[in-house]
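worker-3 :: picked 5-oxoprolinase subunit PxpB
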Amino acid sequence: MYPRIFFSGDTSINVEFDNVISEKVNNQILEIAEIVASQHIIGIIDIVPAYREVTFVFNPLLINIEKFQEFLQKQVVNLPKNLNTKIGKIFDVPVLYNQTVGLDLLEVADYHNLSVEEIIKIHSDKEYRIYMLGFLPGFAYLGGLDSRLHTPRKDTPRLQIPAGSIAIGGEQTGCYPVESPGGWQIIGRTPLMMFNPNHPEIKLHAGDKMKFYSINESEYSRLSDISFNDYFAEEIMV
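worker-3 :: tokens ->
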């Protein structure tokens, strides 16, 4: 029976919703997260929204966990079934789509019986919702991928995927913020430095949106190694 509340460790408690990827569920998750954050509850260390649940990390020495459980239960019971999507930021990210940096671009095109140009157009035409961050610092799991581009992950993951690689994994798309192993299909690369360990602030949040636009090699070189945070230094609200 969903939603349900349960402990996921000695210092964390979850609110879990239906086992689906949907904006409706994600809106409910973000609403619960926002309600708790707005209360500034002593002892809550972190709030981590995901696809179908939100995790609250707490200090057991500072919080009355029984009262917090009761508070969560009350919020869940009173949560509207249909919530309006909150308007967040839109990040319009430059991408070089070619077979040099798009290591699987041709393979993805062949898999779907589409041209490379069609793959690029379909992928860059969509606006993607950030459902959650995870796996790597700043790795945004993006929903809303056109069904024509749904592509299985690779049978054998690569040991090294370059930072900035734009990829497709099943029904999702995303960008590898740092060099990493991975099994998603690589179709392009952004020149932006998505994550800088010397300045680890991450601008992306669940509920924000990301869109990609195609650039050429000259633009790629011009933008190379510019920090994602610097590139989006201005607030871009819609």
